[in-house]
Design the sequence.
């Protein structure tokens, strides 16, 4: 299940380069709008497409991925809300373990059930320590997971959780304020976590402005994920991509 996405993540991190991932919910995008998004993403040099949602109610997952694959070479990474959100057409799968909660089903239970299908898919599997951070509003992910998020001002809890995830063998850490969050993960929390782990750090949720993206990158986020803001205003892709790629880090 080795592949190309994780080597890209690690090589960009080692080079001090920040990456921008556009999050696409297949339930919320039409083929016409996806075509526009692909063209804008190519022009802006978007690094990844993350595909998925807490709930996928339609059969658009495969179709959306195939549409992307026919149009460009930007890697498509599954960001699933549950084990049924699989597609062999994607490039990789973020295999999420909710390390910020205490729901055993989302730590390992659902993985036991999904393992045969994941193995059979042939996808590149990226073991991901998933951390839900309080974004100031109830989110779908916190409701579905039945787990309280890490409080926004508890940087030490986030730090220790991320370190534990890395020591347990997670290949990336993903801090997410969740779709619809009123506020993104704080720069203070990002910096504290980034300074104490060596694996790539992904940050998303509640990010609406290029300025926030830039500050998150400076604080230590390696991949910055934006979804809702782009759903509302697709032309933000260029500004956000420019902000991500303008972050200079000495290595």
Sequence:
């Amino acid at each position: 299940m080795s592949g190309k996405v994780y080597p890209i993540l690690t090589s960009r991190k080692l080079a001090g380069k920040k990456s921008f991932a556009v999050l696409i919910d297949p339930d919320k995008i039409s083929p016409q709008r996806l075509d526009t998004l692909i063209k804008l993403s190519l022009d802006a040099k978007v690094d990844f497409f993350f595909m998925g949602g807490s709930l996928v109610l339609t059969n658009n997952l495969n179709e959306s991925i195939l549409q992307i694959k026919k149009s460009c070479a930007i890697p498509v990474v599954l960001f699933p809300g549950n084990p049924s959100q699989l597609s062999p057409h994607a490039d990789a799968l973020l295999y999420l373990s909710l390390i910020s909660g205490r729901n055993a089903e989302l730590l390992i239970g659902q993985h036991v059930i999904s393992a045969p299908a994941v193995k059979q898919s042939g996808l590149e599997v990226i073991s991901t320590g998933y951390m839900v951070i309080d974004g100031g509003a109830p989110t779908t992910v916190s409701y579905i997971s039945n787990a309280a998020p890490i409080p926004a001002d508890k940087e030490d809890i986030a730090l220790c959780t991320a370190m534990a995830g890395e020591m347990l063998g997670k290949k990336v850490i993903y801090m997410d304020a969740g779709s619809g969050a009123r506020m993104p993960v704080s720069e203070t929390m990002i910096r504290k976590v980034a300074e104490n782990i060596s694996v790539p750090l992904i940050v998303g949720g509640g990010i609406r402005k290029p300025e926030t993206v830039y500050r998150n990158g400076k604080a230590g986020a390696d991949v910055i994920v934006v979804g809702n803001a782009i759903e509302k205003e697709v032309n933000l892709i260029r500004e956000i991509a420019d902000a991500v790629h303008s972050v200079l880090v000495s290595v």
Summary: The chain has one domain: 5-245. The domain at 5-245 is CATH 3.20.20.390 (TIM Barrel). Strands lie at 19-24, 48-51, 76-78, 92-98, 124-132, 172-176, 201-204, 223-226. The chain is about 40% helix and 15% strand.
